[in-house]
Amino acid sequence: MAPPDHSVEIFVPLVAAADPAYLRALEQELLDRFGGVTSFARAPAQGRWTDGGTAETDELIIFQVMTAGLDRPWWAALRARLERDLEQKEVLIRAQPVERL
Questions:
Q1: The overall pTM is greater than 0.85
Q2: CA atoms of 45 and 41, how far apart (whole Å)
Q3: CA dihedral 73, 88, 8, 26 (to 10 degrees)
Q4: Residue 12 pairs with which residues in a beta bridge?
Q5: Would you say 40 and 64 are in contact if contact means Cβ atoms under 8 Å apart?
Q6: 60-99 burial by CB neighbour count: b if 16+ within 10 A, else e?
Q7: Which residue ranges make up each domain of the chain?
Q8: In sequence order, what DSSP letters do the residues of the chain get, joined into one string?
């Protein structure tokens, strides 16, 4: 297997994903597909942005995986599924290149 060259983070709003079983299933899916997953869940992150001049806030759990290459269609399908399941306008999934030091 090739070494990972990307770190991918999935920002999941906690209000939308209030069902712990849903979060566990997502974590297991990522573990099964990528062989490892890190979840930043102990102290939820807080996201703030403006939408039409109104300030919005979300508490988030962030899942992170390392992967060799990016299967963009798979990530797009995951994002669409999360947006539908969690009734969100947008779920942020971002990828960053990894440089091993």
A1: no
A2: 8
A3: -90
A4: 61
A5: yes
A6: bbbbbbbbeeeeeeebeebbeebeeebebeebebeeeeee
A7: 1-14+28-38+67-101
A8: -PPP-EEEEEEEETTTT--HHHHHHHHHHHHHHHS--EEEEEEEEEEEEEETTEEEEEEEEEEEEEESS--HHHHHHHHHHHHHHTT-S---EEEEE----
pLDDT tens by residue, the chain, 101 residues: 678 899 999 999 887 667 888 999 999 999 999 999 999 876 566 666 677 777 767 788 899 999 999 999 999 999 999 999 999 989 999 999 998 88
pLDDT for 28 equals 97
Tokens of residue 43, six digits = 């102290």
Nearest to 41 by CA among 19, 63, 56: 63
- What tokens appear for 40 in the block? 């930043």
pLDDT value of residue 33: 96
